[in-house]
Amino acid sequence: MLSRMKFRNQLNVGFAAIILFIITTVMLMLHFIIGASYRDQEGQLLKAYGQQVAFNIDSRIEYFISYLRLVTTDADLLAAMERDSFQQVQALLDSITAEFLNLHVGRVRDIRLHRNQVIQGVDLFENMDDIFYAFLPGNQAHWQNTYITATYLNDRNEVVFSIFKKAYQTNLERRYFLEMRIYETELFSFFHEDASGNQIYILNNGYIMSTNDRDRFRDLLRQNTFAEKMPRTADTMWIDSATSGFAVVIELYPGFLSRGYFRMLARLAPMIIGVFIASFFFAGVISIRFNKRLKILQEKIAAISNWELNHELRVGGSDEFGMLAEELDDTRLQILDLISQNNHINEQKRVAEISALRSQINSHFLFNSLSSIKWLSGQDNGDTLSEAVDRLAMFLRYSLVLDENQVPLHREIGQLEAFIYLSKLRYGEDLYIHTDIDKELMDSKCVKLILQPLVENSIYHGKGENVLNITIYSYVGDGFYHLIVEDDGLGMSQETIDMIYNHDKSLPKRGYGLRNVIDRVRMCSNDFGKVEIESQEGVCTKVIISQPL
Question: Rounded to 5 degrees, what angle do the CA atoms 406, 408, 409 make?
Answer without folding.
Answer: 105
